[in-house]
Amino acid sequence: MWIDSHCHLDSPEFDADRDEVVAQSLAEGVEAIVNLPGHVDHFAQAKATRERYGCLTGYGIHPLWVAGPAGRSLREHIGELRHWVSREKPDLIGEIGLDFFVADFNQSEQEWFFSEQLKIARDFDLPVSLHVRRSQDHVLKHLRRVKVRGGFAHAFNGSAQQAAEFVKLGFCLGFGGTATFPQAQRVRALLRDVPLENVVVETDAPDIPPSFLGTMGSTARNSPVFLPQIGVILASVRGIAPESFAVATTDNVCRTIGGK
Fold first, then answer.
1. Cα–Cα distance between 88 and 217 in angstroms, integer?
2. How far apart are CA 32 and CA 10, in angstroms?
3. Position 102 pLDDT exceeds 90
4. CA distances from 83 to 43, 59, 89 (A)
5. Which of 17, 45, 51, 209 has a C-alpha 20 to 30 A away from that of 162?
C-alpha cells in the first residue's frame, strides 16, 4: 500500500471525475492521500474533500498566493488560516514555504507569511508540508528560527548538503514525477542517498506528471492513480523492492503526521 504525501485533490482539474479518481486510486493500492490546498478560498473545498474521501488534510497559504483575497489585509489572511486550523484540526499545515523561481515575486511578503504559518504549526504542534523551489537555504533559516514538528519538503530539488540539513531538522523529502525521468540525475542521486526513513512518495497531482505521461514539462494531468507506478520507478532508482519501498515510505508519512 502507498500514501500520496502531496496532492491537490480539491483542484478544479478533478471536478469532473473526483469520485472515479479516488476509487481507482484505492483499487490501485493507494491507502491514503494527503490533500493540500494553498489558498484560503480553497479551504472549504478541501474540507468537503476530506469529509467525502477521508483524506489527510492540511491548510496553508502557498507562497505564490500570498496576496490573498481582495479586501483582506495580510494579517486578516493569516487570522483566517488560524481560525480554520483551530476549528477543523487538520493533520498538518501546508502547502507553505518560499518560491524564488519567479523573479522578484513578493519575497518579503512570502517570508512574513511563511514565518507566521510556521508559528501556527508550532502553536498547534502540527507538521508542515513545505514548498522549497529555489529557496532551500531561506526555508532552513526560518525553520531554525521557528521550531516545528518536522514534516515534508515537497518536490525536493536542492543539494545533498541542503537535504542533510532538512533531515537533521526531522523532515522527510518528497520525490515524485521528476525523479521518474532518467535525465533527472541530480534528483535521482538524492533519492538514492537520502536515508530511507526520510523518503516519501508524492504526485503533486494534477501537476508534475511522470515520465510515462510524456516529456518533462508536459501539461498532462497527473493523478494519485499513478502513485504506485511512480513508486515502482523510484524503488528501482533506489535499488529496493517496490513492496519494501511502499512499506517504508508509507511508514514515514504515518510517523511524520501521527507522531508526537
1. 35
2. 15
3. no
4. 11, 11, 10
5. 209
Say if residues 66 and 106 touch (Cβ distance below 8 Å). yes
Q: What is the per-residue burial (b if ≥16 Cβ within 10 Å, else e) of 112-139?
A: ebbebbbbbbeebebbbbbbbbebbebb
Could you tell me the three cell numbers for 231?
A: 513508486
Give every CB contact of residue 162 below 8 A, 6+ residues apart in sequence: 136, 137, 140
In percent, how much of the chain has pLDDT > 90?
Answer: 87
Residue 70 is predicted with a pLDDT of 55
pLDDT digits (tens, 9 = 90+) for 109-145: 899 999 999 999 999 999 999 999 999 999 999 999 9
Q: For the segment 162-196, what is each residue's pLDDT rounded down to a tens digit?
A: 999 999 999 999 999 999 999 999 999 999 999 99
Q: CATH second-level architecture of 2-258?
A: Alpha-Beta Barrel (3.20)
3-state class (DSSP) for residue 233: helix
Per domain, the residue ranges of the chain are 2-258
For the chain, the C-alpha Rg in angstroms (whole number) is 17
Helix/strand/coil for 151: strand
- Surface-to-core class of residue 75, CB atoms within 10 Å of its CB (0-12 exposed, 13-18 middle, 19+ buried): exposed
Question: Residue 28 and residue 135: Cα distance in Å, rounded?
Answer: 35
> Cα separation of 7 and 15, whole Å?
14
User: Rounded to whole angstroms, how far apart are CA atoms 14 and 8?
Assistant: 9
Number of other residues whose CB lies within 10 A of the CB of residue 20 = 11
Q: What is the mean pLDDT of the chain?
A: 95
